Amino acid sequence: MAHEPRDPTGGLDRPVAPDADEHERRLEAALRPRHLDEFVGQQRVRGQLELMLSSARLRERAADHVLLSGPPGLGKTTLAMIVAAEMGAPLRVSSGPAIQHAGDLAAILSSLTEGEVLFLDEIHRMSRPAEEMLYMAMEDFRVDVVVGKGAGATSIPLELPPFTLVGATTRAGLLPGPLRDRFGFTGHLDFYAPQELELVLRRSSALLDVELSGAGYAQIASRSRGTPRIANRLLRRVRDWALVKGIDRVDARAADDALSMYDVDERGFDRLDRAVLEALCRTFGGGPVGLSTLAAAVGEETETIETVAEPFLLREGMIGRTPRGRVATAAAWEHLGLTPPDV
Ligand SMILES: Nc1ncnc2c1ncn2[C@@H]1O[C@H](COP(=O)(O)OP(=O)(O)OP(=O)(O)O)[C@@H](O)[C@H]1O
Ligand SMILES: [Mg+2]
């Protein structure tokens, strides 16, 4: 089993990190939409989920098992909690890494009540024996509990009340087929459009008691990398800035000033991203240049460049990967205010 953290190099102190530490996760709880109609964007997943939950309510049955996949900070945990709230059902929370033995899972499953929602975060990190127990529990609402050891061990079948499993994963590809197949509903969350993030920000600013102009919201949204978690984090920093500076209403200019202070530019690139682009264009004439050479020029670990900076630069079409190394695209030159060389 892979147990390495998602971002082995840290990087959580970046204002635009997609992950959140424990402290931030507690702050996030206050901003979490409780019901489906407060959940912004993700039109398709939201519509499908709404249909499925309404049908379960009409039939007075536990809803089908739900699998939510997608990058960090896009709303998987939020949706899991919404499933329980919409069903008026109690919620039990655990996670793959917390379930290392089948017995851990048996203990949770055997204490579920009828209709309860069991949220298993990072479900791809569960141990194999637990996973196999989960197959049977999901399909037949039954588990075999093994009592005793060695030759004297017996397995006792145990009936479970109907429950709804909500699994979340950032790595859907790591889930074994048989587990994936047992979910009645699979929702993949994608990055948000800037207009959707503006709606997230409007809702959050009311809760954080900070006032912005329309253009102020747009400034933050465009720097948030399609991710509500980052939008909410930048909003908190803008709120702090406005409070200290005694600004009542944050307009585009003020938002820009605040976020520049945190080194987040108008496309959501931070200092590390820009250092990579600068090295690629200025030092290496646009490439191609090997990853380790690029990393040395920036003064970072190869791994940091590859896992922390590169994914977003690739997504934004700033750099390309070729067999001979990394190259800058025309967009990268333009972003730095440079003229690309003639080729
Ligand atoms: N559609 C949305 N509307 C409003 N707020 C949202 C939405 N999606 C996410 N958020 C907010 O973004 C923050 C992060 O969301 P959440 O914790 O659900 O992400 P996640 O997908 O579970 O991330 P991770 O993979 O790191 O666990 C929360 O504060 C949440 O309220
Ligand atoms: Mg989560």
From TrEMBL:
Single GO term (MF): four-way junction helicase activity
Gene3D superfamilies reported in the protein's UniProt record: 1.10.8.60, P-loop containing nucleotide triphosphate hydrolases, Winged helix-like DNA-binding domain superfamily/Winged helix DNA-binding domain
InterPro entries registered for this protein in UniProt: AAA+_ATPase, AAA_lid_4, DNA_helicase_Holl-junc_RuvB, P-loop_NTPase, RuvB-like_N, RuvB_wg_C, WH-like_DNA-bd_sf, WH_DNA-bd_sf
Location of region: Large ATPase domain (RuvB-L): 12-192
Membrane recorded as keyword: no
Residues covered by region (Head domain (RuvB-H)): 266-343
SMART domains per the UniProt record, alphabetical: AAA (SM00382)
Classification lineage: Bacteria, Bacillati, Actinomycetota, Actinomycetes, Micrococcales
Purpose: The RuvA-RuvB-RuvC complex processes Holliday junction (HJ) DNA during genetic recombination and DNA repair, while the RuvA-RuvB complex plays an important role in the rescue of blocked DNA replication forks via replication fork reversal (RFR). RuvA specifically binds to HJ cruciform DNA, conferring on it an open structure. The RuvB hexamer acts as an ATP-dependent pump, pulling dsDNA into and through the RuvAB complex. RuvB forms 2 homohexamers on either side of HJ DNA bound by 1 or 2 RuvA tetramers; 4 subunits per hexamer contact DNA at a time.
Organism: Micrococcus cohnii
Protein name: Holliday junction branch migration complex subunit RuvB
EC numbers on record: 3.6.4.-
Region (Small ATPAse domain (RuvB-S)): 193-263
Family the UniProt entry places it in: Belongs to the RuvB family.
Alphabetical keyword list: ATP-binding, Cytoplasm, DNA damage, DNA recombination, DNA repair, DNA-binding, Helicase, Hydrolase, Nucleotide-binding
Amino acids binding DNA: R321, R326
Highest taxon of source: Bacteria
Catalytic activity: ATP + H2O = ADP + phosphate + H(+)
A GO cellular-component term linked to this record: cytoplasm
Location of the protein in the cell: Cytoplasm
Residues the entry annotates as binding Mg(2+): T77
